[in-house]
């Protein structure tokens, strides 16, 4: 089943957000984490949010092919349509542009605490969006590169993370160990 793009045109150009010299990075789902140098976007009009956008409404009001960096930390798990969101990320990124995504791992306690989470992920979930993946024919778009890494994420303990993170990023972990040593999150880097 091919997941095709919606037939509706993107938002009229007058309503599109584009990068600016002062805000070249798009920060989706920023919440209270307002980052300097970014266009901070959230569905809630919190202090510091530059644009109030419901990412469940497709297409997103961001210029096509203009963003060289998009950050979406702990956003995708809240959205209705993951494929639609990934298509929109692909659309708005410039060639060679990078999307930095964090999502909860299916086994992590944080995945199940928030009642607004609609999706859960494994390290291999996003590989389907890579151009050379065997099942990439499901979609009408693909990223040139997809890198995924499980992170243990116990506080800010760099020592413990450096010891455990190599153990969390192999096939043995993906098939068996995730049930014993749950990863907290997955860091994904997509390159268009």
What's the topology here?
Layout: E1 25-28, E2 38-42, E3 51-52, E4 67-73, H1 82-92, E5 93-104, H2 109-113, E6 145-151, H3 158-164, H4 171-175, E7 185-191
Parallel strand pairs: 1-2, 1-4, 2-3, 4-5
Antiparallel strand pairs: 5-7, 6-7
Structural class: alpha/beta
Helix content: 10-25%
CATH C-level class is Alpha Beta
Strand content: 15-25%
Major pleated sheet: 7 strands, mixed
Characterise this structure:
The chain has 192 residues and is of the alpha/beta class. The chain has a single domain, classed as Rossmann fold, CATH 3.40.50. It has helices at residues 82-92, 109-113, 158-164, 171-175; strands at residues 25-28, 38-42, 51-52, 67-73, 93-104, 145-151, 185-191. A 7-stranded mixed sheet has the order 3-2-1-4-5-7-6. The longest helix has 11 residues, at 82-92.
Notable traits:
alpha/beta; Rossmann fold; 4 helices
Quick take:
By secondary structure, the chain is of the alpha/beta class. It has one domain (21-151, 186-191): Vaccinia Virus protein VP39 (Rossmann fold, 3-Layer(aba) Sandwich).
């Amino acid at each position: 089943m091919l997941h095709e793009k919606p037939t509706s045109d993107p938002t009229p150009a007058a309503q599109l957000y584009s990068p600016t010299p002062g805000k070249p990075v798009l920060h989706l789902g920023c919440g209270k984490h307002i980052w300097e140098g970014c266009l901070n976007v959230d569905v809630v009009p919190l202090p510091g949010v530059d644009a109030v956008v419901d990412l469940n409404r497709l297409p997103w009001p961001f210029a096509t092919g203009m963003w060289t960096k998009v950050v979406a930390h702990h956003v995708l798990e809240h959205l209705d349509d993951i494929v639609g969101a990934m298509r929109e990320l692909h659309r708005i990124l410039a060639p060679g542009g990078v999307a930095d995504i964090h999502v909860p791992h299916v086994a992590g306690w944080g995945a199940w605490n928030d009642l607004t989470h609609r999706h859960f992920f494994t390290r291999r979930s996003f590989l389907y969006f890579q151009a050379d993946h065997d099942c990439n024919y499901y979609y009408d778009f693909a990223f040139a590169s997809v890198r995924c890494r499980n992170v243990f994420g116990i506080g800010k303990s760099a020592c413990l993370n450096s010891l455990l993170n190599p153990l969390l990023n192999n096939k043995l972990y993906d098939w068996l160990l995730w049930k014993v040593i749950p990863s907290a999150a997955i860091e994904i880097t997509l390159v268009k």
